Amino acid sequence: MGWLADETGxxxxxxxxxxxxxxxxxxxxxxxxxxxxxxxxGPHRKTYAEYHARVSQLASALADxxxxxxxxxxxxxxxxxxxxxxxxxxxxxxxxxxxxxTRLDVVTIAYIxxxxxxxxxxxxxxxxxxxxxxxxxxxxxxxxxIEVADPHGGAKPFGDYREYEDFxxxxxxxxxxxxxxxxxxxxxxxxxxxxxxxxKGVVYHHRGAYLNAMGQVLSWRIVLHPVYLTIVPLxxxxxxxxxxxxxxxxxxxxxxxxxxxxxxxxxxxxxxxTHFGGAPIVLNMxxxxxxxxxxxxxxxxxxxxxxxxxxxxxxxxxxxMGFNVTQVYGLTExxxxxxxxAWQASWDHMQGPERAAMKAxxxxxxxxxxxxxxxxxxMAVIAADGGTKGEIMHRGNGVMKGYLKxxxxxxxxxxxxxxxxxxxxxxxxxxxxxxxxxxKDIIISGGENISSVEVENTLMGHEAVLLCAVVAxxxxxxxxxxxxxxxxxxxxxxxxxxxxxxxxxxxxxxxTPKRVVFEELPKTSTGKIQKFQLRTRAKEV
Length: 541
Description:
By secondary structure, the chain is an alpha/beta fold. The protein has 17 helices and 26 strands.
């Protein structure tokens, strides 16, 4: 080994080793870009100097009321400036940020507050009644509640709790941040959707948040001073780490409380938005917006889409409208996206359905990940033939620390040295991963496996279909058969027979839906269709 066998004097020291943390991005941005606009929300326009000062005040005010390093501070907020400030201010006082989905039921909110042991909650006025009910159900001591008024968004305070701006005013804008001594220290706690039981608490560390944010700069081909629109809820995987990312590149964060087509188009046209992330339902919203809501813009908007495989038909349409879409993939357990459909120059000639189909693949590991692949039940990598199916496995710095207070579940999730996603996929010859289905979404009809995604993508190709979801419907003869739930575009008509015939012309007979139900689809706050509700509905059809 030569001299490597003796590295005397070559150890870590203060000069050559500092724990990685996204807090460093905002500290640097205050120095390098003090006058650059950092956060925009209607009349709220703050420079990096002002943003840093407000974050410092929040950290100081939290410390003053007894929040100590390692304590949990929760939020029940939409995408408004206070939610962005919490992403830096909470860890800057050494605490752990727990962003809670504002659409959760009272019982689940109470469980999360108890399980995470939150000491403080920053809450939007529209959610205050739910929070009050949840606190009544808690078994632990109730957290301190800070009400975050939003005059611009029409959310007036109830006045029963201390208001956020008043609270902020008690803090010191020169507060000395408590930086992590170890990059493995926890920075955030996120709860899974919990559709099949109690939600699990996913714990992130400073190192993973830093590397995920930096890796996405590369994957998204970001240059200095992007303008990012917060469509992905900041309570969903901490907004895919994008709020932590923005100061690293001197970017502007444009907050969007209400996700609607006209708000998206206005932000692009008026604020010059260059980037945003969102589920395929957001792409549908943009494509199918009425002409009265659309705005002209003269630049390309880069879009990360994830949450479900977007229909090739949707991708083909939106690319003609000034949007360049990159399919990404990840889970709460991987800090959001950790896989990207990295575009190859050899694909540039592709057009129409061929190009859209290529872009619908989830892709390859982002730079901060060691490996993302597809394995069989024996944890052997499957054949890269685009047809053999297995489970997507993740390994790298973008994987969670584990599940809070659930060592058994953590061990099971990490069995064999990989994180087990539960997502079923194929592996293409070029090593690109493509989701076939969630394991629970596979339909087994007469012994044949049917991918609900394949059927959904087919139906989305019909000109009248706005959204669709396919689930298993119990069947006496076949065990289960595909049942499609469909939302039609405004002004369009199609019958059950029309859509079944459309699918039959394009799919094998056993894959064709046996029933089509027309109704509004139940969705989560991030735009994911709640298939567990549709499975219940299918049993009633």
